[in-house]
Design a protein that fits this description.
single chain, 223 residues, Rossmann fold, DNA polymerase, domain 1, 2 domains, SSM1_domain, Pyr-5-nucltdase, Pyrimidine 5'-nucleotidase, HAD_sf
């Protein structure tokens, strides 16, 4: 019988504690569990650019500014909030939640089997909203492969997200894990670098997620 994972917001007030013994695998979702070439990333970027046009940003500067915000804050939305005072819930409605994911993502049996064959606890750590995270995981058919999903609650003022130092500490505290027990996989180099600064085992995902994860676990008896 399949079970739904626990969804937890990345908040400074989070008091939940979970006991998951042994090393743990922590996955980003977008462009990590599915390929960046599938079309979702391009569509979301275009929707971000459309939104930016409503802020009177010069057309020739939109892509550069959105890229800078993503690199600096881990999330373009964070930059738009800090520098343009946008409503994060409105942004999310017009960008992430407006994407028809079913046109780009489908059940991925290979991914599901791969995750289920790894005998370690697995969670997700995303800068996306709960709704977006759920939609992606359900489209891929892998939601039940994870025990917990950490997501960003855009309704909270000054919400926490990667690569902020505190976001990594939220996971450590909630999961009661020492940094060296955490294996982290993400497609953004900034997030991986910050995870390593926190003492995590961080791995950059660009093309072959299966190879990177398998290689990182070569010395472990978990497959």
């Amino acid at each position: 019988m399949s079970r739904s994972p626990l969804y937890l917001p990345l908040t400074k007030e989070n008091s939940t504690e979970l006991y998951l013994p042994g090393d743990i695998l922590v996955f980003d979702i977008d462009n990590t569990l599915y390929s960046s070439k599938c079309g979702v990333e391009k569509l979301i970027k275009n929707k971000i650019y459309e939104f930016a046009r409503t802020l009177n940003i010069k057309e020739e500067e939109i892509k550069e500014i959105a890229g800078e915000y993503t690199k600096k804050y881990g999330l373009a939305l964070k930059g738009f909030i800090l520098h343009h005072d946008v409503d994060p819930l409105r942004f999310n409605e017009l960008v992430d939640e407006s994407v028809e994911l079913g046109k780009y993502l489908e059940e991925d049996r290979k991914l599901k089997d791969f995750l289920n064959n790894i005998n370690l606890h697995k969670i997700c750590f995303t800068n996306a909203s709960k709704v977006h995270a759920q939609r992606v995981l359900r489209c891929l058919g892998v939601e039940e492969c994870f025990e917990c999903i950490f997501y960003c609650d855009y309704g909270i003022k000054d919400f926490v997200c990667k690569p902020e130092h505190f976001s990594y500490k939220v996971l450590e505290k909630t999961l009661k894990k020492k940094p060296h027990e955490i294996y982290f996989y993400d497609d953004l180099e900034t997030n991986v670098i910050c995870s390593k600064k926190n003492g995590w085992n961080g791995f950059l995902i660009k093309d072959d997620m299966y190879y990177v994860v398998s290689k990182s676990l070569e010395d472990k008896e978990c497959r």
